[in-house]
Amino acid sequence: MFTLTPDRTVLTPGGNLAEEPRDDLHLAALEIPACHVGRISPELLDEARLRAAMARSALIAGAAGRCVELTVAHTTARTQFGRPLSRFQAVKQEEARLIEEAALVRAAVQAAAAPLDTGGPAAHFAVAAAKTQASASAAEITRIAHQLHGAIGITRLHPLHLATTRLWSWRDEDGDETHWAPRLARPLTAATLWPTLTTEP
User: Fold this and answer.
1) DSSP of the chain, one letter per residue?
2) What span, in angstroms and rounded, lies between the C-alpha atoms of 34 and 37?
3) How would you write the pLDDT of the chain (201 residues) with one tens digit per residue?
4) Closest CA to 105 of 70, 74, 72, 66
5) What are the b/e assignments for 150-163, b being 16+ CB within 10 Å?
6) Whole-model pTM?
7) Contact 169, 20 (CB under 8 A)
8) How many other CB atoms sit within 10 Å of the CB of residue 174?
9) Number of neighbours of residue 13 by Cβ within 10 angstroms
């Protein structure tokens, strides 16, 4: 058995935009005997990536829901020109867009849950769709939430930043939309779209 002790590593403390710990553990100077090195199958690594992306998508869905809760509560309670902000047409439209984006993320995550348990190509497609949608929607959700909160939403005293800074961070972690979108489109193009376009009637 090979035991790794702290004195044989270099730990560099770090964090993401939401101030969650994201430390770097450096093992470059560590020599491990070949007899203690085990091979990890590509299938296991692939499953780990899928599950990490799925978990991150679910976290984004939760934070998006929190943005909706806080924004609806704010526009209902805050008044301008003698009436709640939620009564103004422009605010209604942006609020509806916010709710729609959050619902898209939630639906994508829910749709990916069952295929992930069964595995196979369906799991790859479903998780790629979920993470692509979650990461793409994160920017729009945070934009609308902060816009409707005004300046109060960016302060540390207001709980909105606890959700939006996580959305900005989690959007990139475990692959952003530019990482997952090609994995979503590639099998679709190769297996479905191209034959459909080129097959004679």
Assistant:
1) -----GGGSEEE--B-TT--B--EEE-TT----GGG-----HHHHHHHHHHHHHHHHHHHHHHHHHHHHHHHHHHHH-EETTEEGGGSHHHHHHHHHHHHHHHHHHHHHHHHHHHHHH-SHHHHHHHHHHHHHHHHHHHHHHHHHHHHHGGGGGSTTSTHHHHHHHHHHHHHTT--HHHHHHHHHHHHIIIIIHHHHHS--
2) 5
3) 677 788 888 889 999 999 999 999 888 778 888 888 888 899 999 999 999 999 999 999 999 999 999 999 999 999 999 999 999 999 999 999 999 999 999 999 999 998 988 888 889 989 999 999 999 999 999 999 999 999 888 888 999 999 999 999 999 999 999 999 998 887 776 667 667 567 665
4) 66
5) eeebeeeeeebbeb
6) 0.89
7) yes
8) 21
9) 8
Instruction: Dig out the tokens for 93 from the structure.
Output: 């439209």
- At 113, which amino acid appears? A
